Amino acid sequence: MEGIVFEKLNSLGALLEPLNPFKVAVLTNTTVRDIWLEEVLDSISEYEVHPIIIPDGEKYKDLETARYVWEKLIKIGFTRKSLLIGLGGGVITDIAGFVASTYMRGTLLGLIPTTLLAQVDAAIGGKTGINFHGKNMIGTFYLPNFVLIDIMTLSTLPMVEVLNGLAEVVKYAILDREVYEILTRISSPQEAIKSEELIRKSVEVKVRVVEEDLRESGKRRILNLGHTVGHAIEKLSGYKIKHGFAVSVGLVVASKLGERLYGFDSGKVYELLKKFGLPINLPFEPSKVLEAMKLDKKAWYGKIVFIIPVKIGEVVIEEVPESLVLEVLREVRE
C-alpha cells in the first residue's frame, strides 16, 4: 500500500507537493493542538491552511462532530482538490477519513497519527467511521493519499494511551510470528514505543492483509481478532473503557477459544498482556457481553463469528456455539 511513510513531521511539505492542494484543513483535537499543531503548520506555511479543532474523546466521534467539520469546510470554500489532514489519534483519523470521503463525494486526505493505536491500526487500511448506536456503525472505506508516521509523536503520550495501542500490537503478534518474536524481546511499554522496527512490522502485517481484501469481504476479517468481545465491552461501558483495553480482554477470550478448539497455547498471549500490564478479566456479566456481541456489525447474518488462533501466525474465522462462548466468558470473568 503506497503512501505510508516513516518520516519527521517537518517532511510534511514534501508530501503535499505532488498533491498541489487548493486549500488545506488540519483537523485535530484540543490535546494534540497544544503539542504538535504548530510544528505541522510551520511545515506547510506556503499553503492556505485552516485548523479545525474539536474536543478530545471517543464520545465526540459522532454525527454532530462530522456535521460541524462539514460546515467548517463549506465556510472556508473547501473543494474536491483541497486536502483534509487528520492530526491525532484514532478518533481524529476516523472522523477525518469519514468527512473526506463524504464531502463532495471525496476530497484529498492525509493522516498524521500521533498515538500508537492510530499508527499501527486506525490510520492504516482505509476504514473510516463514526459511532452511531454502536462502534463505527456509520462509515466508509476510503484510502488516504498519504499516512505520515513520526514515532517521536509517541514520546508525549500518557502511559494509558501507550497501553491502549499495545493491545493492537499484541494482536499482530498473534497474527504474525515475526511481530511476536520482536515483542517477546521488548521488556516495557516505554521500549515498545521507541522501536520503529516493531511499529513498521505491525503496519506491514495490516497492509499485507488489507491489500488482499480492502472491503473486509474475506481475509481482512482476521484483523478483527479480539474485537468481537472488545466492541461489546466498549459499548457496555458507554465507551469509557478504551478500545485497546477492551480488545485486550477480547484477545484472552479468543485465545481461550483457540485452546479449547485447536490446542492453542493461550499462555503465550497471557504472558504478553501481563508483561505490559494490560487487562485480562471480563469487566461485565458474561450474559450481557454475549447479547452485545450479537448486535455488533461483525456478527454477520446475526451469528457470532470469532477470529480464533490455531497457533502463532495462524488463525481461522469461525462461528462458535453460544454455549461455548458463554463458558469461556465466565472463565475470563473470574
TrEMBL record:
<dbReference type="GO" id="GO:0003856">
    <property type="term" value="F:3-dehydroquinate synthase activity"/>
</dbReference>
<dbReference type="Pfam" id="PF01761">
    <property type="entry name" value="DHQ_synthase"/>
</dbReference>
<feature type="domain" description="3-dehydroquinate synthase C-terminal">
    <location>
        <begin position="165"/>
        <end position="299"/>
    </location>
</feature>
<keyword id="KW-0028">Amino-acid biosynthesis</keyword>
<keyword id="KW-0862">Zinc</keyword>
<feature type="binding site">
    <location>
        <begin position="56"/>
        <end position="61"/>
    </location>
    <ligand>
        <name>NAD(+)</name>
    </ligand>
</feature>
<feature type="binding site">
    <location>
        <position position="127"/>
    </location>
    <ligand>
        <name>NAD(+)</name>
    </ligand>
</feature>
<feature type="binding site">
    <location>
        <begin position="90"/>
        <end position="94"/>
    </location>
    <ligand>
        <name>NAD(+)</name>
    </ligand>
</feature>
<dbReference type="GO" id="GO:0000166">
    <property type="term" value="F:nucleotide binding"/>
</dbReference>
<dbReference type="Pfam" id="PF24621">
    <property type="entry name" value="DHQS_C"/>
</dbReference>
<dbReference type="InterPro" id="IPR050071">
    <property type="entry name" value="Dehydroquinate_synthase"/>
</dbReference>
<dbReference type="InterPro" id="IPR030963">
    <property type="entry name" value="DHQ_synth_fam"/>
</dbReference>
<feature type="binding site">
    <location>
        <position position="243"/>
    </location>
    <ligand>
        <name>Zn(2+)</name>
    </ligand>
</feature>
<feature type="binding site">
    <location>
        <position position="135"/>
    </location>
    <ligand>
        <name>NAD(+)</name>
    </ligand>
</feature>
<dbReference type="GO" id="GO:0005737">
    <property type="term" value="C:cytoplasm"/>
</dbReference>
<dbReference type="InterPro" id="IPR030960">
    <property type="entry name" value="DHQS/DOIS_N"/>
</dbReference>
<dbReference type="InterPro" id="IPR016037">
    <property type="entry name" value="DHQ_synth_AroB"/>
</dbReference>
<dbReference type="GO" id="GO:0009073">
    <property type="term" value="P:aromatic amino acid family biosynthetic process"/>
</dbReference>
<comment type="similarity">
    <text>Belongs to the sugar phosphate cyclases superfamily. Dehydroquinate synthase family.</text>
</comment>
<keyword id="KW-0479">Metal-binding</keyword>
<keyword id="KW-0547">Nucleotide-binding</keyword>
<protein>
    <recommendedName>
        <fullName>3-dehydroquinate synthase</fullName>
        <ecNumber>4.2.3.4</ecNumber>
    </recommendedName>
</protein>
<feature type="binding site">
    <location>
        <position position="168"/>
    </location>
    <ligand>
        <name>Zn(2+)</name>
    </ligand>
</feature>
<dbReference type="InterPro" id="IPR056179">
    <property type="entry name" value="DHQS_C"/>
</dbReference>
<keyword id="KW-0456">Lyase</keyword>
<dbReference type="GO" id="GO:0008652">
    <property type="term" value="P:amino acid biosynthetic process"/>
</dbReference>
<comment type="function">
    <text>Catalyzes the conversion of 3-deoxy-D-arabino-heptulosonate 7-phosphate (DAHP) to dehydroquinate (DHQ).</text>
</comment>
<keyword id="KW-0057">Aromatic amino acid biosynthesis</keyword>
<feature type="domain" description="3-dehydroquinate synthase N-terminal">
    <location>
        <begin position="52"/>
        <end position="162"/>
    </location>
</feature>
<feature type="binding site">
    <location>
        <position position="227"/>
    </location>
    <ligand>
        <name>Zn(2+)</name>
    </ligand>
</feature>
<keyword id="KW-0963">Cytoplasm</keyword>
<comment type="pathway">
    <text>Metabolic intermediate biosynthesis; chorismate biosynthesis; chorismate from D-erythrose 4-phosphate and phosphoenolpyruvate: step 2/7.</text>
</comment>
<keyword id="KW-0170">Cobalt</keyword>
<feature type="binding site">
    <location>
        <begin position="114"/>
        <end position="115"/>
    </location>
    <ligand>
        <name>NAD(+)</name>
    </ligand>
</feature>
<keyword id="KW-0520">NAD</keyword>
<feature type="binding site">
    <location>
        <begin position="153"/>
        <end position="156"/>
    </location>
    <ligand>
        <name>NAD(+)</name>
    </ligand>
</feature>
<dbReference type="GO" id="GO:0009423">
    <property type="term" value="P:chorismate biosynthetic process"/>
</dbReference>
<dbReference type="GO" id="GO:0046872">
    <property type="term" value="F:metal ion binding"/>
</dbReference>
